Amino acid sequence: RSILKTPLKQAATSHSVLTELQPDCQPLTTPTKPKEILPVDPWTPTSNLKMLISAASPEIRNREQRRELSNNPSEVLQAKHCLQEHLSGDEYEKSQPSRKEKSLGLLCHKFLARYPNYPSTAENNFICLDEVAEELNVERRRIYDIVNVLESLHMVSRLAKNRYVWHGRHNLSKTLQALKKVGEENKYTQQIQMIKKREHEHEFDFGGEKKEEIARSFGSNEHSEMSFVELPGMEFRAASVNSRKDKSLRVMSQKFVMLFLVSTPQIVSLEIAAKILIGEDQLEDLDKSKFKTKIRRLYDIANVLSSLELIKKVHVTEERGRKPAFKWTGPDVLPNIQGTKLETTSTTHPPPTSESIPSKEQCSKNLFPLKGKQNFTRHPSLMKLVKSIENDRRKIQSAPTSPIKIRASTDQNLSAFPSEMVQVPAITKHQLEGQSKKEKEMKMKLSRSALDCNLSSPDVLKPEASCSAVLPQQPALPQALGVCSPSHGSVSPVILPQTHSGVSYAIYLHPSQAHTVTTYSPSFMLQPLPCANVTGIKSINSKVVNKMTTEEGDNQIATGDPTKSLTTKERPAIKSEASSQRCFKRSQALQENHLPKRYRSDKESLDTSLSFFPSGYLIPLAQCTHSNKAGFSNEEKAGMCSLQHTTYSSPVAGVIPMTASELKAVNIPAFQITPLNIMLSPTSSIAAAPVLSNSSLNSSNTSSAPNLSSSVLNFTLQHVGLIPAGVQVPANPVLRHVPITSQPENISHCSENVSLQEKVRKNILQLLDHGELTGKYSAPCVPKEPQMPQTPTENFFRTPGGPNTVPSLSANSDGTNTISQETLYIPQRKLEVSED
DNA sequence: TGATCCCGCCAACGT
DNA sequence: ACGTTGGCGGGATCA
């Protein structure tokens, strides 16, 4: 039906028709809106709110649809009247929507009203663009605008074409932290100051060196191709997704937000934002049109951000006059403890349950060109790599909607259909066969597929706690199974304690490279696997266990999530349940959509999978089980349940020491508690579990010491899809030669075995030390920009306490630009913010 | 008027 | 060849 197609065409057609019929009327311009509108009630935010809230009402929808059908003024009027009668008094709204009623902001509100801020994993969080567009009665184009911005905040992530997953604000705080960090690294603060300074000087017409100055302030700006800041776990779906050249809206949105986060008075004027954003890629021609366009875009973004209540419009009055600006009204973003030493005056105490946990600035990918002449530039080879990765991603991304094919490269398929995991062996084989090509490429694919959405971006493999991650993770199953499969060990995840942000990465290695450990660094090339943090892995105490059970790496913990109130013990269980449900749903959805046949033999598959359970390919199966659980018959469920039980109590090596009784006692599925979960591949590859250590239980110490085990756990839970208890550690004898041991003793759930843990840690470190550790992905890396030198100045600069005391600033690393306080224009002082 | 920003053409990409 | 995305900027509206 035409509905499914781009609605624009329709409109366009009618429009042209209109034009034809009424040549003199509105030539090729935007059809003028019929003037006479119901004088009735004036538009008010409230009324609009009501309107949008009731937007879901079928009645309204119909009305709107009808309205939409008539682009012709006369028709519109007719429709209007019709509607008016149709509508009851209270539903009165101008049927002839004013411009405001069609604003992006309002639309965004409607959009947001459809989804909870903190969705539970259990609900259906899928977003079908077509449906939304239809229901909200807007062109899809508009939805893209919204979704793109939301995506930049990781509030949604793309699953496939036309399909997104709603995450709500679960990831928000992490995202903001990440953005803030990137913004700091990008020296946005300085850039802002620069621009302000320039403006100021402009009065005196210092024009001459303008350009140079700009150039300097921005650093030898080699086309900073905008890059998207990803969040661990979100990478794949998010940025990746389809890499249109620059993803400007998304990137712009992030950058815009960064500006707020790094500004002391968190107010950013459009003008400055535009200049900075422009400056980043083309400082040369600051031509007017470009500026204008940028502004337009910023308005779009601002509207969405406003709807999210992250910012609000204000006006700043300076010498130059009143300028539109926006003020950050979102949550305060704590400085990430690790990344920078910057301190926020206030929140220094480690809130036990703080939501703004120092979630590591998971900025997985920070491709911003560093400022300064001596900046590191992306190595060409890297660029290439990135490009190819992007391409791959693109392909994968669009797969879901397409007819399914079991292609090695389209892991997505697998993820969509848990049941298919059962066929892993075959698939794996297939993959292997096909992959005989470029090993490197394959490797990438594998890692991608295995980790999929969650860890997957080749650039960054970080575990993500978000529920949304669950599904995407599934793809990993096939891989895992494959690994386990005697005949084809394809890839195995490797756990690497993550450095930098204390997050571990999971990497899947190709068997051929089993001896090597490859890791993705979040910053890809900029941060070549720092091992420093790794050393911290040390004492693992009961706390860790506790923590693990508590965190589960889920972002939900962070904010007002309902589950938050649950005891730490309960939460995991609940969550897993939810997750499983979700998985099911998703798979189901996908199924309905495009791959009806595939699933046919779910049952069979299930059976197969069941048989696998005991074999030690626990993780994949577990996931499978879970996902199926929700949707299958009771008997099936029962079967699974029993399976789980046997599983965790199984004598299989690697099973956690936790006993079933213990589990019962706490009412948690055993699997939730496994302290350490390392999967070893038969091929001697190491399966690792990344983990994001975050939280509350985290001591102030940022070292990754306690993280390892928790990481593993998290990884397992998060990426493996809430694996059932004992399932965790496959005790595959074959793996024995692997440095990392996974024997039960090592996994004792308590603090007793520190030494063992230490052992593990060492092993990992060894692996890390391995020259090939960074593998191909990080090879082209350039040393990361020396962590922003934390000069006193900088600190001061950022200190909330002293907005007016911006001291002299040595903005550039090259030291060429030193701005003294005297000459620096500090608008903040003169700013008058007026909200309206 | 200047601030806003809707609208939808059309190119880039995918399938 | 067609569908999805989304850059882009003309010009309508709003304040």
Automatic annotation (TrEMBL):
One Pfam family of this chain: WHD_E2F_TDP
GO cellular component: RNA polymerase II transcription regulator complex
Subcellular compartments: Nucleus
Chain spans, region Disordered: 337-360, 553-578, 799-822
One GO BP: positive regulation of nucleobase-containing compound metabolic process
InterPro entries recorded: E2F, E2F_WHTH_DNA-bd_dom, WH-like_DNA-bd_sf, WH_DNA-bd_sf
Domain called E2F/DP family winged-helix DNA-binding: residue spans: 99-168, 244-330
Keywords: Activator, Cell cycle, DNA-binding, Nucleus, Repressor, Transcription, Transcription regulation
The protein, known as: Transcription factor E2F8
Organism the protein comes from: Pedionomus torquatus (Plains-wanderer)
Gene name tied to this protein: E2f8
